[in-house]
């Protein structure tokens, strides 16, 4: 009887220990057909006209006790058209979308490695499409004038205090082409309101910043922002025409939901656009029209039309999250 009780106690203890640590496999499959201006109609899984990038990832967390937790995240881009990799770094090899480790508690979270930037998270607080690949805000002004991800980033995120939070990221000089970089956000996301101020700067460069907000009325959401990209960039973070300059503007948009369907119209208008030498260049009014229909909580179909710097681009696709 004693042996049985001891065995049950050991089994229960081991079960409790196993419950303290977990690893989750997750991912996205997004395939669409679309046409960028000047190109032929084609299928894509991580293109500008896709809702998101196809990918697979692993995330894990361990409960260290006393409210302290440790975790990691590795994420790999996938070309769903042929099964190959689809990363923008490391020659398309490795975990190019995320590779980081973190430690967190009631004092906040400290993270190291390749990860999404504080500016990116700030933009998602109010951007209507959830930072989709075809986001007119991101394709016009970048993710607050920069890439969506940083390599070798140290970051600290505060606890969420009734909707208020902030994150500070920093990259050392030796890890960023001999120029240190900082990136920061301050956010309020609570109930129908989402708002954020984001800024980032590479030493020796100018500061990119953005301020935006969103209010959800129920079946209708309205969003607006001011974007100041000191380094004029495309949505993928590449410098437009390989020339550094300024691109400042405002955005205004709305989303209407009809049950499982929704329609979004988002518009950007340049207020200032110039090259590094101060020469003025053409300003644009850009726009996105998006339609989505949810087939389930994890699967939806979508269609999008993106008017971008005088070009007309359109596509439709199917996205499944797992």
Automatic annotation (TrEMBL):
- Which key words tag this protein in UniProt? Cell outer membrane, Ion transport, Membrane, Porin, Signal, Transmembrane, Transmembrane beta strand, Transport
MF terms per GO, please?
porin activity
Q: Where in the cell is it found?
A: Cell outer membrane
The cross-references to SUPFAM superfamilies, in alphabetical order and at most eight, read: Porins
Q: Which residues cross the membrane?
A: none
Residues of the Porin domain: 7-312
**Which InterPro entries does its entry note?**
Gram-neg_bact_OMP (IPR050298), Gram_neg_porin_domain (IPR033900), Porin_dom_sf (IPR023614), Porin_Neis (IPR002299)
What Gene3D superfamilies does the database record attribute to this sequence? Porin
A GO cellular component annotation here is: pore complex
Q: How does it sit in the membrane?
A: Multi-pass membrane protein
Supply the name of the protein. Porin domain-containing protein
From the broadest rank down, the organism's phylogenetic lineage runs: Bacteria, Pseudomonadati, Pseudomonadota, Betaproteobacteria, Burkholderiales
